[in-house]
Amino acid sequence: MTQTNVNIRMDKNLKEQFDKFCKDVGMTMTTAFCIFAKKSVREQRIPFEITADDPFYSEQNMKRLKKAIKDLDNGKGTKHEIIEMSDE
């Protein structure tokens, strides 16, 4: 099978962490990227879920929101009406 080189750029720290991970699981980075490419082609999709890191859903914010809801349910805090604003 004819092989070719592929060059990619990534953050130096990320590269070092990924290289360490690959070594820890007994493979090279080349092997890891080839596995990713083969699985992507075979399944015709990225073989894992990709999501945006939305700070709204962070663990810290979820705890804050749950506490705020609990406080409101217990009569603490202030409820406000939604005020519609015009675009003018």
Description:
The chain has one domain (12-73). It has 3 helices and no strands. Helix content is 49%, strand content 0%. It is mainly α and 88 residues long. It is elongated and about 70 Å long.
Termini separation:
66 Å
Uncertain runs? none
Strand residues, percent: under 5%
Q: Kindly report the oligomeric state of this protein.
A: single chain
* H-E string: HHH
Concise summary:
This protein is 49% helix and 0% strand. It is mainly alpha-helical and 88 residues long.
Task: Spell out the key features of this protein.
0% strand, 88 residues, mainly alpha, elongated
Topology:
Blueprint: H1 12-24, H2 29-43, H3 59-73
